[in-house]
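Case study B.
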Amino acid sequence: MKGPNFSDYEALYKGYDWQKEKSNLSGLPGGKGLNIAYEAVDRHADGDLKNTTALRFIRKSGEHVDYTYAGLKAETGKFANVLKKLKVKEGDRVFSLLGRVPPLYIASLGSLKYKAVFCPLFSVFGPEPVFQRLSKGDVRILITTTDAYEKKVKGLLGRLPSLQYVLLTDTDRDLDEFALSYPKLMEEASEEFSIPTTDPEDPALLHFTSGTTGMPKGALHVHQAVVIHYSTGKYVLDFKKGDIFWCTADPGWVTGTSYGIISPLVNGVTSIVDEEEFDGMRWYSILEKEKVNIWYTAPTAIRRLMRMTIVPKESFDLSHLRLVLSVGEPLHAGAVIWGEKAFGVPVLDNWWQTETGGIMISNYRSMKVKPGSMGRPLPGVHAAIADIGENHFKVLDQPGKEGHLVLKKGIPSLFREYIHQEERYQKSFHGDWYITGDLARIDSDGYFWFVGRADDIIKTSGHMVGPFEVESTLMKHPAVAEAAVIGKPEPSIGELVKAFVVLKEGYQAEKDLERELIGFARKTMGPAVAPKELSFIDSLPKTKSGKILRRLLKARELGLPEGDLSTLEKN
Ligand code: AMP
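Model:
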């Protein structure tokens, strides 16, 4: 087995410099700047890797569709020319609402070439979350299927004034002058596209994340983020020439874009994309058949695999597997140890979030793994624990102290904006520090340990769910006067979304209504976001200033101490 890409963490960390790392990338020819898609596709297509498979799609049927780097250059060039034909301007937003199919990957990289901003949405979202994001993101072009268009988008058109065209991936004819055939446009487009001058600070990608007190926040990333896509590929994912990599995340989540699309391509390896949802036996057979070397997945999937009775290493040939990594939620020590037995390699946990655009803290192949710890900061990343109060901010020096996880500014992939929410963005920083919203501690060896979220955001099956978004949807139902939503610990999915509902007068708290409300939320928001449990309650606990005390609802639900109730408004 080939050795790790670096052996001495301390030495690498100490002498690290972003500028030096950046010089490992090619840059646009003629000194025309730095463009993610050029680094990911064109430079390889014009070099030794042109006939290497860049993306291998595994259809639901099991059939393969492969794109070489040269093929991907041609297809993404065509998509950029489609945008040109449709008179899209640089910086305009192109959204996708698609499963893990080739047009999503081609549109994302083609948009980056064109310098449009790309925003992938989860295909499982229902019409309301789709509307919130398209509207807030000022969508110009949406690429989706006819079915999703008919069911989720058509009814919203009057409320989306910026939307100019919908591109439909599964029809050869235009529906009208607005809903156009993607295959037809692609067939008519030229492959030749010259990437315009791209400033490293030009916007590139938009990812929505959940808010606690408001609707989803759109975190904007710039082309310079590619430095992190490259460096984390080298140091964390340990990519080497000829590697086969599989990231199971959907591009609707930032992991599925940064590591399901960009990082493996920037590093010139072959990336597997499975169109199907989780299926333990299918996943193991993909690892075996595709001879996957590096596998990036999530605790929610690992927990499901752990419940299966088979020992994968005994039932499948996993001898090619060099590295298994996990992100998105706490990975408990038991899962790390299980991985060692199941795969022959430990599962390496790492930490990051939508706003950071790439991995920030990680366990590395060459460093001792402490099961249950998120690991140590990426070279170039300065992470710390801070005590933050109403009027104070203090970085804590002593190990072992719990506090807010903060990151020093200057990270190439850190978000540059919450679109249309400048004040919210500014509030995420204190001086030179970005406040992540997570609580953590550092041990005396410099390892970071996750403690919890500092806010009410729920993590369910790897998805971030903002309580406010769910509450707002429930309140659209005529029976609901008020609603509050919490995350309730549930071993297989992390947390389940639980809603508390105060009914309007004239409605009875009955099982039928409970079912109706859950059904209403599922239809409007999609099953990934909607509550799984719902209880009726006479009134919601609130602060004197009128804020719902979700923390108290949660403590009561779980039978935990109720904590400081000084701000509780007495009914
Ligand atoms: P997202 O922006 O959807 O990627 O979610 C980011 C959040 O997921 C972080 O702020 C953490 O709360 C949580 N998270 C991500 N990775 C980890 C990890 N390795 N351990 C614990 N929590 C994590």
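The longest strand covers residues 480-490. The remaining cases will be described in the next quarterly update.
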